């Protein structure tokens, strides 16, 4: 009997030891090297690594294989990796790249418990960009861009106008009256507003007047609508009145250079102009202000994302890493150190400078309808934007009416939506 008891005890101890060893092995996290494809606009890769240093220290089993590719080669490199069956575990993605690789992206809802709760953390326009045609959320927004208004504050001050105060509530009609006073008070100033020579910047005005490029479900072109027609007529009026320089849309003048020279009271451009003017404007004080209201307030969104791919080797760890990179603390840090607008609703970023200017652009994005992103991510729209620009020019020249221009665009654009 004693032998039997001893034997049972030995077996029990051995089993316990084996179970403990097995548990220890299961608890140990497997080493993972995440392949990351990246491009730089400036210092983004350095900031990315610095931002995620705390995560990597807290998760020593995770390493990064960061591959930096020139932007002009980026989409082609990514497509080759995907077609070759070897997609990266995660990649930095632009709004343009999203449309190129959309069908290869792994949906976030396959890796989180409540995708709707995740989506609510981000700006609606950024969520719209990152949602595919099946309604799947396919990328984490990391940084945003926006169109907005930058003004020569010194010129407004000389006219006795507090641009900070009036811009809180002004309409475009009120802006027109105000900016005429600014021009009159500044002999060297010739114009009220420079607008970049792109359909993208024109659409900033168009959306404010309830204009659209496409129909409600983005299945076809519908430039012929009352809001777009009103915008075209008003844009021509501004040119005819000399409030907008003809030399930009009807010539080759650079609107940013006109602003930097003090020749225009304001510039509708992108949030990236904040960095440009920080470096180049020395002769006057400038700042970002809220754009005047048309029928609504609206900007035009853009931005960057991180995403993973169907068939990626380390998908589980990639999604954990991306979720951490896109959380509030990391998004604030990354946005601050890259001088970008955060993609989150709850982000509060204090930049080394110009925090107020970035906040203005962010406020514009918060009121921007999601359909603006849905229109601009439509690949068929991109095929007709050059023609749209040509038709706007024809209206400004007086060669055709606004009504003729929108009809021409719809006729040409319809061929791309069949």
Write the layout of secondary structure elements.
Layout: H1 2-27, E1 32-38, H2 44-51, H3 53-58, E2 62-68, H4 71-83, E3 90-94, H5 95-101, H6 115-119, H7 124-129, E4 140-152, H8 153-158, H9 163-166, H10 172-185, E5 194-195, H11 199-208, H12 226-240, H13 246-249, H14 255-260, E6 266-270, H15 273-280, E7 286-289, E8 301-307, H16 315-325, H17 328-338, E9 341-342, H18 355-366, H19 371-376, H20 379-382, H21 385-397, H22 402-413
Parallel strand pairs: 1-2, 1-3, 5-6
Antiparallel strand pairs: 3-8, 4-6, 4-7, 4-8, 4-9
Structure in words:
By secondary structure, the chain is of the alpha/beta class. 50% of the residues lie in helices and 12% in strands. It is built from 22 helices and 9 strands. Strands 1, 2, 3, 4, 5, 6, 7, 8 and 9 form a 9-stranded mixed β-sheet that branches. The chain is globular and about 75 Å long.
What's this, in brief?
The chain is an alpha/beta fold and 418 residues long. The protein contains 22 helices and 9 strands.
Mean pLDDT: 93
Identify the quaternary structure here: single chain
- Helix count, DSSP H or I runs of 4 or more residues: 22
Uncertain regions spanning at least 5 consecutive residues: 1-26
Kindly state the number of beta strands: 9
Distance between the termini: 88 Å
What amount of the residues lies in strands?
Answer: 5-15%
User: What class, by secondary structure content?
Assistant: alpha/beta
| Residue share in helix | 40-55%
Q: Estimate the global geometry from the Cα principal axes.
A: globular
């Amino acid at each position: 009997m004693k032998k039997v008891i001893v034997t049972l005890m030995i077996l029990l101890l051995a089993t316990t030891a084996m179970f403990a060893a097995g548990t220890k092995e299961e608890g140990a996290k497997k080493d993972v090297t995440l392949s990351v494809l990246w491009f730089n606009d400036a210092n983004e890769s350095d900031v990315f690594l610095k931002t995620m240093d705390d995560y990597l220290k807290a998760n020593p089993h995770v390493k990064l294989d960061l591959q930096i590719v020139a932007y002009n080669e980026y989409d082609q490199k990514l497509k080759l990796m995907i077609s070759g069956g070897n997609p990266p575990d995660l990649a930095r993605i632009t709004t343009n790249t999203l449309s190129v690789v959309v069908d290869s992206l792994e949906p976030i809802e396959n890796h989180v418990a409540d995708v709707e709760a995740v989506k609510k953390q981000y700006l609606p326009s950024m969520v719209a960009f990152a949602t595919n045609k099946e309604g799947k959320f396919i990328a984490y927004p990391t940084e945003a861009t926006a169109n907005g208004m930058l003004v020569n504050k010194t010129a407004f001050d000389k006219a006795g106008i507090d641009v900070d105060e009036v811009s809180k509530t002004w309409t475009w009609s009120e802006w027109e009256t105000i900016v005429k006073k600014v021009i009159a008070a500044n002999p060297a100033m010739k114009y009220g507003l420079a607008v970049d020579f792109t359909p993208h910047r024109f659409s900033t005005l168009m959306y404010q007047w309830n204009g659209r490029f496409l129909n409600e479900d983005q299945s076809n072109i519908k430039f012929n609508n009352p809001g777009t027609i009103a915008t075209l007529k008003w844009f021509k009026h501004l040119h005819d009145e000399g409030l907008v320089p003809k030399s930009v849309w009807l010539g080759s003048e650079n609107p940013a250079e006109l602003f930097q020279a003090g020749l225009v009271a304001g510039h509708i451009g992108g949030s990236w102009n904040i960095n440009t003017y920080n470096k180049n404007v020395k002769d006057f004080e400038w700042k970002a202000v809220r754009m005047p209201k048309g029928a609504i307030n609206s900007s035009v969104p853009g931005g960057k994302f991180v995403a993973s791919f169907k068939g990626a080797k380390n998908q589980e760890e990639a999604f954990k890493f991306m979720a951490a990179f896109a959380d509030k603390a990391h998004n604030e840090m990354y946005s601050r150190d890259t001088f970008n607008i955060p993609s989150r609703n709850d982000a509060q970023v204090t930049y080394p400078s110009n925090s107020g200017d970035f906040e203005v652009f962010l406020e514009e994005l918060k009121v921007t309808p999601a359909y603006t992103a849905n229109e601009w991510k439509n690949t068929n729209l991109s095929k007709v934007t050059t023609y749209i620009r040509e038709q706007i020019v024809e209206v400004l020249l007086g060669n055709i009416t606004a009504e003729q221009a929108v009809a021409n665009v719809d006729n040409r654009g319809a061929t791309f939506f069949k």
